[in-house]
Structure formats: C-alpha cells, structure tokens
Amino acid sequence: xxxxxxxxxxxxxxxxxxxxxxxxxxxxxxxxxxxxxxxxxxxxxxxxxxxxxxxxxxxxxxxxxxxxxxxxxxxxxxxxxxxxxxxxxxxxxxxxxxxxxxxxxxxxxxxxxxxxxxxxxxxxxxxxxxxxxxxxxxxxxxxxxxxxxxxxxxxxxxxxxxxxxxxxxxxxxxxxxxxxxxxxxxxxxxxxxxxxxxxxxxxxxxxxxxxxxxxxxxxxxxxxxxxxxxxxxxxxxxxxxxxxxxxxxxxxxxxxxxxxxxxxxxxxxx
Length: 270
Fold this sequence. Notes:
- The protein has 270 residues and is an alpha/beta fold.
- The chain is built from eight helices and ten strands.
- The protein is elongated, with a radius of gyration of 21 Å.
C-alpha cells in the first residue's frame, strides 16, 4: 500500500485516499497514531473501510486530527477469510483438507503460506490461509502481510499427542496482535490428533482459554473426521453473525454459562 504526506499551508495531510486501506489497516494506523507528528488531517476517501471502523475513527479524532472520509461501507461481505496457525506438525493441512474433501491422500506438510477456498452451504465463500508459525519461518512474513487484508477470524491448532506443540501458540498470537484487536478478533482453539494418546496437560489448555478468551475449544481427529466439520462450522457461524447479522456471540460462551450456573447454585445454598 502506498501513501503520501501533503504539506498544505503548513498543515500536514496524511493522504490514504484510493489506497485500498481496510479495517485491519486502519486498526494498525490507530495503534501507531502517536508516531505521526504534526499530522492534522487524514484523508480516507474511497478506502475499503466499513462501519466496523467507526471506533477507530473516533480514536483518531480524539488526537485532534480531522478525518476526510467517504460514507463507511456496510459490514456485509461475500467472502470470509480464516487463517490457520500453529506449528509445522500441528496438522493444519490435514485438518483443512479433511474438511474440504473428506480425503487424506497425498498430504504434504505445509511450508510457509498455503491458500484454499471453498463455498459454504450459505453460499458464502470461505478463504482458508494456512500459515506456519515457528520462529524459523519468519522469511514468509511478507506473504503473511499480503493475506492479512482477507482475514476475519483464526483457528489455532496444536498437536494433542505432542508435549510442547502447544507452546508455539503464544508466538502466533503475538503476530496476530500486530494486525488485530485480539479482544474482538474471533479465534478458535483446536487440539488435533485426538485419536492418539494425549500428551498435553489439560491445565495448559485451560490456561490458554482463560488468558486469551478464545471463542471455543474443540478436540478433533482428521483421521476419522471427528469434530472437523463442527469446528469449522462454529467459527463460520460466529463470523457470519458478526458481519451479516450485525451481532456477535460472547467469547468462551459455554464457560461463562457454567460460571453463571455456579453462582446461581451458591445463591440457593445461602
């Protein structure tokens, strides 16, 4: 994305018009707004931003910066992007191919970034981006930057049969944090290879769920297709409601309900 700074009557204008800037790009701009010294006007005319970005525009205006913008576009979308993150051996490619084709023949480990696309029963296209997140794959970051404009949610996968595989996930979340507001970005946690002996301590999974407030946790097996369709459908429905219907389910919904039930029981005991 290219942009220019125009100096007009000693007023600096940050011109982002016609650059294709989207909601994710505006969020990143908001995070770094303090570094744009002496900028008085930001031109967002004809950018690809939606009503979802109203809060970011408000934050910029609080810095006493004037916004030039066309009418914000409605949030409805014809396609959704879901990124799959995790270590090289977490089973990302096997997981998504078993969802798309229900077949497991000739599957190779993903390297860097892979892209798949499929139509949902609701006639909405889902674009799946598979990204390997170990630290030694930093050389693929430029591809990651390109695909970020397509992303609406994430599935983080880890191998249940590996003791340390789950430890890669915080690194993945650090990357997401550069592009999204994690409190509002829907992330589904998936433990793969559930047909094998479990080596991950359940406490590690609970700690991650509590710390990052993932929308839900599934244990799946791509070998016998256990919970594969169910997990993808869950995050699709979550994103669909957010964009097409203008509402969002609470994160970690079941855990919150359990907590409420416990409180009610305590009240009865008293």
